[in-house]
Amino acid sequence: MAVARALRTADGETLEAELAPAIGAERAAMVLCHPHPQYGGTMRSIVISSLFESLPASGIACLRFNFRGVENSTGSHDNGGAERGDVRAALSALVEEVGDDLPMVLTGWSFGGDVALSVSDPTIDAWLTIAPPLRFIGDLAALATDRRPKHLALAEHDEFRSPREVAAVVAGWRATTIEVVGGASHFFVGRTDRLAVIANSFVDEVSTPET
Fold it and tell me: Is the pTM above the cut of 0.85?
């Protein structure tokens, strides 16, 4: 069952959040970042809600939160800048909850995916981004050379940026893989089950020790 949390950012904002503990044996932890708040995005948006509800049953502890200025979170929208501090607050809260032994996967959808990719906190073991437009990332050069795994799940019929365009941007990135969800739009209506499968498979890869 999800538990309400209040996160405190380094610059003094309070963020609304919810924690869904892993059911059974824990195998990973995941912070979920929602889409653009100026277009209706919240932590209850379809993709974030679907992952938050389904992944704990497979041993993945999930924390979702509202960026500053969204619903009951204080502060105001900063076009992806100050929102990076929101992500760091969420990461810190989840590490405090589950410890630092579990793989930490920072996950985001759309705008949330870009913000996630803009945060290079050492607690992060991997990034899973869903339909990131790659328009709100702070330092693409540093991200491109980062050795940690990055998996991009893209929508075949994305209305905002095509998989072909995204693939061209990330072509030279290290440790980066792409998966296109057939038949999906940017909003993944009717395809969120596929995203859960992708998330679980990626966690399996991140959790498997290198030989």
Answer: yes
